[in-house]
Amino acid sequence: MKLKPLADRVIIKQVEAEETTKAGIILTSAAQEKPQVFEVIEVGPGGLVDGNEVKMTVKKGNKIITGKYSGTEVKIDGDEYTIVRQSDILAIVE
After folding, report:
1. Which residues on adjacent β-strands are paired with residue 80?
2. Among 77, 56, 65, which Cα is nearest to 14's?
3. What are the Cα distances from residue 85, in Å, to 11, 22, 55, 56, 60?
């Protein structure tokens, strides 16, 4: 199944947490802190949203940061994704 976002929505997937620290210590999954960084999987076309023209500034493959409780989580074919509005994206990580 493939997801295609509408309007100003963006489909993102959380970037996996590091399994080792900078000092080389291996962390268990319970000790790993979930990163706030996501990868953009698909981007909607933009267009007219709530009477305003929206131009999409994020692209597929960008690494981004969103608000902690933003979006709607969905599970498709065993993979977890989050769907957010472009306005919920706080920054692009370069």
Report:
1. 75
2. 65
3. 9, 34, 12, 10, 14
Which string of DSSP letters, residue by residue, matches 11-69?
A: EEEEPPPPSB-TT-PBPPTTTPPPPSEEEEEEE---EEETTEEE-----TT-EEEE-TT
How far apart CA 53 and CA 50 sit, in angstroms, is 8
Phi, psi torsion values for 91, nearest 5 degrees: -160, 155
Which tokens go with 51? 């009477």
Question: Of 10, 31, 11, whose CA–CA distance to 20 is shortest?
Answer: 31
Evaluate the CA torsion angle 53, 46, 65, 74 in order and state its sign: positive
| pLDDT tens readout for residues 17-40 | 655 666 766 655 554 455 589 999
Cα separation, 79 vs 42, in Å, equals 14
The pLDDT mean for the chain works out to: 86
Cα 51 to chain centroid, rounded: 25
